[in-house]
Specification:
163 residues; alpha+beta
Length: 163
Amino acid sequence: ESAQVIKSFREIDPSFNSEEFSKQLREYIVPEVLDAFIQGDEKVLKMWLSEAPFNIIAAQQKQLREQGLFSDGRILDVRGVDIVKFKMLEPSNIPVLVIGARVQEINLYRKIKTGELAAGSEEDILLSAYAMVLTRIPEEVDNKETEGWKILEFVRGGSRSFT
């Protein structure tokens, strides 16, 4: 199945190499998406996420705004960014990569009007696990930012206090 996925991605981009792409994931894609997620940056998330995960996050952001809050958290460290699995999704045989990452993060929420801290703490560092399912959209390969990569699923798994 791994070979089939790699072959599919090479049909889209003959220069695709899973080792090089792993580096791109570690250094650019995963940090960019996680920063946008923790900050609630819908513009960046819309670029990377497919419709379903984007709509879920946008609804969460809308709920925060309705409560007069905004996310002011930040990512401290991203580790263990790995391609966990190469998979062909049925029934359409869509090639995907399942990505995992471990993240140290601080989740803070502030009041929109005053900037006053409403929830969370600078000292409360969480260790969280994230999983993403990526595919490549042939029509979007020329996109300078994403090169056609799209996140079909975005999940924040378990979190625990780091300190």
